[in-house]
Amino acid sequence: MKPIQTFTIIPSLPSRLQPLQEIAYNLLWTWDREAIDLFRRLDRDLWNETEHNPVLMLGKISQTQLEMAAMDDSFLAYMDRVYRNFKDYTSSSTWFDKTYGKDSQTCIAYFSAEFGITESMPIYSGGLGILAGDYLKSSSDMGAPLVGVGLLYQKGYFRQRLNADGWQQEGYPDNDFYNMSIKLIRNDDGTPRIFTMDFPEGSVTIQIWYAQIGRLSLFLLDTNTPVNTRDDYRNITDMLYVADREKRIRQEIILGVGGVRALKEMGIKPIVYHMNEGHSSFLALERIRELIHNNGLSFAQAREIVSATNLFTTHTPEPAGIDVFSPYLIEKYFDKYCSELGISIYDLLALGRQNPADPNEGFSMAVLALHLAAYNNGVSRLHGKVSRAMWKNLWSGFPEDDIPIGSITNGVHVRSWLSNDMEGLFDRYIGNWRNGDMSDPRIWERVDSIPDDELWRTHERRRERLVAFVRQRLELQLKRQGATQLEIQEARSSLDPEALTIGFARRFAPYKRASLLLRDAKRLAQILHEKDRPVQIIFAGKAHPEDEAGKRLIREIFHATQQEEFRRRIVFIEDYEMNTARYLVQGCDLWLNTPKRLREASGTSGMKAAINGVINMSVLDGWWYEAYRHQIGWSIGSEEEYQTDVDQDEVEFNAICNILEKEVVPNFYERGTDHIPRKWVAMMKAIMSSVCPVYNTDRMVKDYINNFYLKCANHWKHLTADNFARARELADWKAHLRQNWQFIRIDKVSMDNVSEVKVGSVINVRAQIYLGALKPDDVAIEIYKGPIDPAKREIVGAEAIHMSCSESHGDGKYIYEGIIQCRSTGLYGYSVRILPKHEDPADYYEPGLIIWAL
After folding, report:
1. Under a CB-based contact definition with an 8 Å cutoff, are residues 801 and 831 in contact?
2. Half-sphere exposure (CA, 13 Å, Cβ side) for 669?
3. What pLDDT is stored for residue 102 in this prediction?
4. Which one, of 152, 134, 155, 171, lies nearest residue 542 by Cα?
5. What structural domains and CATH numbers belong to the chain?
6. Is the pTM of this model over 0.70?
7. What is the CA radius of gyration of the chain?
8. Helices (H), 437-547
């Protein structure tokens, strides 16, 4: 029976407990230990039962308990303190205020397909979403003028269960939005705030939800509203990362196009847009459409403004991880939209293709983002390099090092992932670290002042809690699988709370090689069961529902846990999510990461472990490539390349075992009379003091603001001034440039007649250039100079040296001169190139526009 009307029931709190409601609806509580303890004090069992959801908890707790709490002076005093701190946080001055002023007009919109804020709001799948959640938290801490935009999934990502044979099973329980720390945006009359979008089959209605993340807002779009009478429209936002391509493109249209419209509906006017992965790339088209519609600009003029104020962050070095849609779907959903943009559907398809002339090439969301964002970055230094190689065809003719894709290495939100016990140690020995600048290394130097015995005892408590948690989870898993009482009893004694504990937890994709340690079961068993020096391994992670190879990896590990030599020494924990992750990164001793090199973008789980003093052992990939030094952990191999995957697996398995046998196990178990492993504790301190100040999201926020956001904001102000005069002029200039580029050339290049020169000398270079209808102000003429790679006979590590126009011969002919400084010895080479130059563009690396001396 369908209801004739709906209404929402909210908790009935005594007036004295009203602050609980306000605290529960601001997700600041997720990184405020005292706020979490406040809800625990109300009812610890209910807190765990509701999966740490204070809104649901307040709705389920008995009225009697609430009345008792309202008369408990101790509880009230604690609540008042938490509420006072909460108010102080939201009203106090921030780093951004102090650095750029409170009246800054900059507003940044941060779009992501998923946000991992808390396990009680499961609208995330893994690393991308957790990173986005951590980034919002630090943006709040730093006072960045940022709003988040995403989708609110009715079922979210799947819940994982393993059957008795170890095969992953997926379940999709419904999220109850009315019992989460979010609110539906309503009009003054109480009706939901909605807007509509036109799809080929008719209009889809979207409602907007709102989450408060400390000082900032996160808006989440949802199509599951009764106004949508079609089931397929109501279900657009039901699940994250659906395999159905048509449903996927609908989601991404709503995220990108609908997200821009939702902000407009809310009266929010960002001037900078940040696309966290390519899922939201359609936002660039909607921004262009709005400028055309509202300001009478052409597509080319609007594109200049939008590109100059867009930032695209790519998170994957895997082509398979990029969303690509068929030309048919793009035509179906954007044919009419193109008329509003003033371009043809073929022009639009070209924006999403590496080769615009290939009618069979799919439409890539990453390529669309790269074409419509002046700023692009990978998420670690090495990933930036991999991304430049991955997308070099978009900038044909440019050396890879010049491809305009930079990097900002990811980080983690320290207060969200640091254990409560470790926080206590920091409070005692580091001082006011919470309110300081997390990226200040001087704060983290004080880690050395923590007494070895206190640090070790603290870590041992975390390991004991991890083992207790794992045993409890294993027992539940086995009961669901129909295990015998004997098997359940054995689970209660699985693992050793004093043994060296290795953690491996991440998405189960084949390239991450979760089963690498099982390559030689006999050798691994010897390591795990060495007398008086036991080792144990905890695995956790999900495979994408469509990834059969990933599921087979899980099954392989599950079966290994059943073998006699591995029973109680290797376990697999189902349903890896944020709460499980906290136990693992806070309680393991060693964090293991084994991807095939150059296929890991960043890998933030290792950072979460490191801030808790967990030592890392990893392939030199992602963030570990730039963070590693021998005092803080171990590298698996160096930067070797292998003929086959089999060779690589064999070599790196043996490397892992050698490191475990010769270094990890001895360092962990080498104890003095006080039973403290001094070498191990020294490494714990070293990794904390090294990782905490660099690999945190506070530093990330600063980097994005200083390297990208402020530049984008300045471009916006400059290009939109005087009724968009500069944007119009820039579009006209580019049209003129492209029309005449084919005619320009480098006629002759000469240099001083020398074959050998001494260090400190200079070499004069002279170039004769023909520019045709272009002027010297339209181009940059550069010497491209660097050492010669002996194998490739190519210039590497080059620097670009500006050449000045020294003569004009008329008829478009010019002479340019420049100087090469000879600073070091070796074989060097040079060339000369022509690039576009203008004072307005964010960069002058225009795809297709480069000419080299022949």
Report:
1. no
2. 17
3. 78
4. 171
5. 15-91 (no CATH), 95-407 (3.40.50.2000), 443-695 (3.40.50.2000), 744-852 (2.60.40)
6. yes
7. 29
8. 441-444, 452-480, 485-491, 521-528
